[in-house]
Design goal:
With 389 residues, the protein is α/β, with parallel strands linked by helices. It folds into 3 domains: 8-76; 98-299, Rossmann fold, CATH 3.40.50; 315-386, Winged helix-like DNA-binding domain superfamily/Winged helix DNA-binding domain (Arc Repressor Mutant, subunit A, Orthogonal Bundle). It is 46% helix and 11% strand. The chain is built from 16 helices and 11 strands. The protein has helices at residues 8-17, 26-45, 59-70, 74-83, 119-123, 137-152, 165-175, 197-206, 221-234, 248-258, 273-283, 292-299, 321-328, 338-345, 349-361, 376-386, and strands spanning 86-89, 111-114, 126-130, 156-159, 180-184, 208-211, 237-240, 262-265, 287-288, 365-368, 371-374. A 9-stranded mixed sheet has the order 1-2-6-5-4-3-7-8-9, with helices on both faces. Helix 13 packs across helix 14 (338-345) and helix 14 (338-345) packs across helix 15. The N and C termini lie far apart (66 Å).
Length: 389
């Protein structure tokens, strides 16, 4: 799964730096661009490293980075991830998803993986489904339905492995026998949240568990926020199911927008605070979606269109225009003579009579001595269309 183009020294240095630099550290990313991973690590572990050796870092921060770097043993972390059937991939590997490079200097140093599939291949047809942890039953249902629908159509469902919408989306994909990726804000050997131990285990067996942090590292609030940029960059688009105004899911959506990815939202009740953030997203550049077909129409290839949406086809919808005019000219109650119907329909008496006989054969009207009237079935149908009981 790993290309031989990246030197072992580069891989080991990047693995070491995942314990030194926080995810998304753009200043650290610039150092890597200028000095290379081995060069940055060498500077941080050198006895002669002083303020100014690395641009833009204060003496205080430099001491902190050097303290972190001094105790790092990358071989131990690489052995630990191999022991659980995982691996560490870096830019330059065949498995590295090149769309992560869109993050610029905030690009991950590397990714720790658990699972057999090739992340680069899976990411090519992937969609993020994210939302509130404390979601409503509606949010859980919609997330699971999206996960199932996307998986059944051959798309990979990416989310954060959290409670609520994330877990429902993962379970929907797994239940359909499909592909799903959990991007964690901790080490891939750490189960968080603890209540998702079984779910994370299933994802590792059937899909992929991904993280920027080395084995054993635990999540922090800032790491959750920074993890979201990886979800946004990795996928073709992001769907937000439920989110309040202040929500990490909206951070993912905004990151997706900044990266030129598709951003979608599932509407909810306007009285629900958990849908307020989604509705705000939809008032901007977000696209309203209600099922997997509509998501794929947006992120998929040309011609992958969602089915046309319309209400039920009623018998009168199948009539031609002139017959509908004659039918609409009939009174709701009582009978009417042919000349009066013709006047209302704007046509001749002879044509009206012919149309009335056609409508009679279809069960819309009936003949009386004094003229023509609507059948009880037609009246009931008209009332139902108007919502009259």
């Amino acid at each position: 799964m790993v290309s031989g183009e990246v030197s072992e020294g580069e891989r080991a240095a990047r693995a070491a730096l995942t314990r030194v630099l926080e995810p998304g550290d753009e200043r650290g990313g610039r150092w890597l661009r200028e000095f290379g991973a081995e060069g940055v690590l060498a500077l941080l572990t050198s006895q002669d490293c002083r303020e100014g050796a690395l641009p833009g870092v204060t003496e205080t921060r430099l001491r902190g980075l050097r303290a972190r770097a001094s105790g790092v043993i990358p071989a131990r972390d690489l052995d630990a991830v191999r022991a659980i059937g995982g691996r560490f991939i870096v830019p330059g590997d065949a498995e590295w998803p090149s769309q992560l490079d869109d993050l610029g200097d905030a690009r991950p140093l590397g990714l720790w993986l658990r699972g057999r599939p090739d992340l680069r291949i899976w990411a090519l047809s992937s969609v993020a489904v994210v939302g509130a942890r404390a979601c409503t039953p509606y949010g859980s249902h919609m997330a699971a339905a999206l996960g199932t629908g996307l998986a059944e159509r051959g798309w990979v469902v990416v989310s954060g492995g959290a409670y609520g919408v994330d877990g429902a989306a993962h379970r929907g994909a797994l239940g359909a026998g499909g592909a799903t990726v959990a991007v964690l804000a901790c080490g891939v050997d750490v189960v968080y949240p603890r209540g998702h131990a079984e779910l994370i285990g299933r994802i590792a067996e059937q899909g992929l568990v991904v993280g920027e942090l080395p084995p054993g590292d635990h999540p922090t609030p800032s790491r959750f926020i920074l993890r979201n940029r990886v979800i946004a960059a990795l996928t073709r688009g992001t769907v937000v199911v439920e989110a309040e105004y202040r929500s990490g899911s909206l951070v993912t959506a905004r990151s997706a927008q900044q990266l030129g990815r598709f951003t979608m939202g599932v509407p909810g009740p306007v009285t629900s605070g958990l849908s307020a953030g989604v509705h705000e997203l939809l008032r901007g550049e977000g696209v309203l979606v209600t099922d997997a077909a509509e998501v794929i129409e947006l992120v998929g290839d040309m011609g992958e269109l969602a089915p046309a949406r319309r209400g039920p086809v009623l018998p009168r919808d199948l009539l031609d225009l002139r017959s509908r005019r004659v039918l609409e000219a009939m009174p709701a109650r009582g009978a009417m003579a042919v000349p009066e119907v013709a006047r209302g329909a704007g046509t001749t008496a002879d044509e009206t009579l012919g149309r009335l006989y056609e409508l009679h054969s279809l069960g819309f009207v009936e003949r009386l001595h004094e003229g023509w009237r609507l059948t009880p079935r037609t009246i009931r149908g008209s009332n139902a269309r108007r919502g009259v009981t």
